[in-house]
Design a protein that fits this description.
By secondary structure, this protein is α+β, with helices and mostly antiparallel strands. It contains eight helices and 20 strands. The strands form four sheets. It has an eight-stranded antiparallel beta sheet, covered by helices on one side. The chain has a five-stranded parallel beta sheet with strand order 2-1-3-4-8, sandwiched between helices. The radius of gyration is 19 Å and the shape is globular. It starts with a helix and ends in a 14-residue tail after the last strand.
Length: about 350
Amino acid sequence: MAVSDHDLIQAWKQVLTLSKLEPGQIVTVLTSTSTHPQTLSTALVAVGLMGATANRLDLPPVNGEKALSRDSLAFLGTTPLTGNRAAIAALKESDLVLDLMTLLFSPEQHEILAAGTKILLAVEPPEVLVRMVPTLDDKARVAQAAQRLDGAREMHVTSAAGTDLRCPLGEFPVIQEYGFVDAPGRWDHWPSGFVLTWPNERQTEGILVIDRGDILLPMKRYVQGPIRVRVTQGFVTAIDGGLDAELLSEYMASFNDPEAYAMSHIGWGLQPRAQWTTLAMYDREATIGMDARAFEGNFLFSFGPNNEAGGSRTTACHIDIPLRRCTVAIDGEPVVRDGKVLDGFVYGSADRSGE
């Protein structure tokens, strides 16, 4: 259901307040052909109402001839900023970049963040943004999970469907996504609500069973029959099953890149306002599937790059897969059991408005 401009402006104001936007600061709104016009117009109004200066930087899309989908995460090659020194300079001079285009997994993004600029990605439909406006509670819950994961030596994931995966940890940082950017050089994604890290390179071992009802992204497809994935020394070595397994296997093979088969980020969803069912309600081109990534209790894993965490792998293939009904144990202690988060977090323990 559509939302009013008033409601979306109020949502933007809350996100910008949580992101510590101050009067006189410079905000650059990064847009492209896929940017939702209501998200853009209300963002500009909200920035103005908060006394900041708004600029818009509109860039042409790239990689359309290479990607197999219109999804912005379906091909992670060059970006509209590649070689564009003027655009990069403008973004580095901004206090805050509102990314309504999807600038991810790129050296240009790292360069901008290193300059102290904050970047907030927001590309989901307006009604999804309004439903999952971030709060201080969201940050507190994600921070609590990150504290549990920080310093851990192993994540062990199991399920009744047959998943049994061991991921040694420690080489890469723990990342918190809670939906706003409240520190210089921080990147986040509105909406979100999960914690993640990357397993040690070439050390993950075991079986992943993508069961009926689990989701393949960026295909945005609910799996109809089990897919059995063997991971050996951190790389996918076998994909077995029916039609869904063939689709996943052929899609990964289309990149013609051995790095596409590497284990990427792993973590679990913590956002109670995200819903597993939402993807069934939308046209595939309308959303990038953040409900699927963030819904409470999922085990979210990925194949592909690790450069977002400081690694060197920059493959164009990026596949996110949230599994339901898994048990996630950190150093032998479950943090999620059969798809239920065990943190005991009480909402209302933090000021939900941030104001």
